[in-house]
Specification:
CATH topology of the largest domain: Aspartate Aminotransferase, domain 2
Number of helices: 14
CATH class of the largest domain: Alpha Beta
Structural class: alpha/beta
Oligomer: single chain
CATH architecture of the largest domain: 3-Layer(aba) Sandwich
Helix content: 25-40%
Strand order of the largest sheet: 1-9-8-5-4-2-3
Number of domains: 2
Strand content: 5-15%
């Protein structure tokens, strides 16, 4: 059907006829509803979640209630970032200085940094062909100091939670889910983030829904919620007498979400399902076309519950991956293979690998003899470098998807 001369990389016509729309799903969906919500807050002059000059409803509280209902969770706490949500959740489940938290080698550095911020020690484990934590590698990394497993639901897809929860139960460990990149996904009918002891989500601008910066913790454990709430509010627990607990207060940080963020987040939450369903439809069409070429796709722990933020497939080696990416780019298709440095890959976490705290003593690493090196997770690097990623943009029209499929077919028919 096509020859080498048809490929744009060799001088042929590009498949895509217009520039790519920026990949900010919720951000690009911002409309009049967000404007009205923000103006309502400004006009009320209630910018702080706990009080204002007049008796008006807190937008943050309204967002928390709506989020908890959609997640099917008893408790929800909104914070100013997911990084802080992770730290607060770790403190809330009882992490002590020097405790170990197992985290995959493929996640944004914030996952590991949040562990250090909780005065704990990151233990980096392998991923598998799901691009999430390899359950078989968790047990190898468990020691007497292990307190928490932190599965990271990467790029819109769930971890293998049945296997991870089984390991946690066997060893008496807590599970804090990092669902920063998978807001709204599910695993076997249960919302991501509600399977472990606590789940954390991001509302940062790159994420599926956004308020610029923001984070969420969900949990069914009242004590975890109360401890997280107290920690995120500088150690206060006088806000609501009904949730006071003998375990608090203790010193905390200011991680509170503002009313402006809450107003935006509440509107964006209402957009989430449409965005996800649109991406799922686009991905279904593209994957069906790609399947005719014998492609090995990223394995899904639960394909029906993923967000369809991206389609990932594997090639024999990183050289072939780079070659295919170059050809797809020439066709106007935004595709990528792993490059370094990248803060999503553990080899770029120099401050973690060098055991640096935020102080001259090196604390909390002074409490551990755990060491790191850039070759410690070879499987992780192998999967990342031979993988090719194509982001699925909810702003695409059906015509855009057709052009992308045409470009993929050109490249695959000639080069695979």
């Amino acid at each position: 059907m096509y020859t080498k001369n048809d490929l744009a990389v060799n001088g042929g016509n590009k498949a895509r006829t217009k520039p790519e729309t920026p990949m900010f799903p919720g951000g690009m969906a911002i409309g009049i509803e967000e404007e009205q919500a923000v103006l309502e807050v400004l006009r009320s002059r209630r910018l702080f979640r706990y009080y204002g000059p007049y008796d008006t409803e807190s937008k943050v509280e309204a967002f928390e209630n709506a989020y908890a209902k959609q997640a099917g969770s008893k408790y929800c706490l909104a914070l100013n970032s997911c990084s802080n949500a992770l730290t607060a959740a770790l403190i809330a489940v009882g992490v002590q200085p020097g405790d170990e938290v197992i985290v995959p080698g493929y996640t944004f550095v914030a996952s590991a940094a949040a562990i250090v911020a909780a005065n704990a020690i990151p233990v980096i484990c392998e991923i598998d062909d799901t691009l999430t934590m390899d359950p078989n590698d968790i047990e190898r990394n468990i020691t007497s100091k292990t307190k928490v497993i932190m599965p990271v639901h990467m790029r819109g897809a769930s971890c293998q939670m049945d296997e991870i929860m089984a390991v946690a139960k066997r060893h008496g460990l807590k599970v804090v889910e990092d669902a920063a990149q998978s807001n709204g996904g599910s695993y076997k009918g249960k919302k991501i983030g509600t399977i472990g002891d606590a789940g954390c989500f991001s509302l940062q601008y790159h994420k599926i829904i956004t308020c610029g910066e923001g984070g969420v913790i969900v949990t069914d454990d009242k004590n975890v919620y109360v401890r997280a709430m107290s920690f995120h509010d500088t150690g206060a627990n006088w806000r609501d007498a009904d949730i006071r607990h003998e375990d608090v207060p203790f010193p905390g940080m200011n991680m509170r979400m503002t009313e402006l963020q809450g107003a935006l987040a509440l509107v964006q939450l209402g957009r989430r399902e449409k965005l996800i369903n649109t991406m799922r439809g686009h991905k279904r069409r593209i994957k069906e076309a790609m399947s005719r070429y014998g492609i090995t796709f990223r394995r899904m722990a639960d394909e029906s519950g993923e967000l369809a933020l991206t389609i990932v497939f594997f090639l024999p080696d990183k050289e072939k991956a780079a070659e295919i990416v170059k050809a797809l780019h020439a066709e106007g298709i935004v595709a990528g293979s792993q490059r370094l440095p990248d803060w999503h890959v553990y080899t770029s976490w120099d401050h973690i690998l060098n055991r640096r705290g935020n102080n001259d003593s090196g604390f909390p690493f002074t409490l551990s003899d755990r060491t790191y090196d850039k070759n410690m997770c070879p499987k992780t690097l192998d999967y990342l470098f031979k993988g090719v990623h194509i982001a699925i943009n909810p702003a695409w029209t059906d015509a855009d998807v057709s052009e992308i499929i045409a470009g993929i077919e050109k490249v695959f028919s000639v080069m695979l």
